[in-house]
Amino acid sequence: MNDDVENIADRAMELASAFLDANSKELARLSGGSMDVLRDAARVVQDRQAHTERSAAMSAEHLAFTLITAAYDSLRRERNPEGG
Fold first, then answer.
1. Can you give the pLDDT at residue 76?
2. Are 63 and 20 within 8 A, CB to CB?
3. Helices 3-30 and 35-50 sit at what angle, rounded to 10 degrees?
4. Cα–Cα nearest to 31, from 76, 62, 1
5. How far, rounded to the nearest angstrom, does the alpha carbon of residue 40 sit from its chain's CA centroid?
6. What's the pTM value of the predicted model, to 2 decimals?
7. Cα-based angle 6, 10, 15 (whole degrees, multiple of 5)
8. Given this model, what pLDDT does residue 48 score?
């Protein structure tokens, strides 16, 4: 595989990880720490995605859902660090 391809893939993962970390924490904060609020927000995004034409807007909704999921998982790990 070409070094450029590896570099791009690595950088994309770094950017995505940093973006998810920073922004999912903001969503967790905005939810007031409520997993129910995040779950409801995820449902709203899913509903919007179901009514969106295949386009860049759908990609934005996919990203929004991913951010909400990351925030939910972060709260879940905070409350149960042993994962049980």
1. 93
2. no
3. 120
4. 76
5. 14
6. 0.73
7. 145
8. 84
Residue 84, SS3 per DSSP: coil
Query: Sign of the CA dihedral 28, 34, 35, 37?
Result: negative
- pLDDT of 84 > 60? The answer is no
Task: State residue 16 phi and psi, 5-degree precision.
Answer: -65, -45
Nearest residue to 26 (alpha-carbon basis) of 11, 41, 43, 47? 41
Q: Is 54 left (phi over 0), alpha (psi -120 to 50) or beta?
A: beta
Rg (CA), the chain: 15
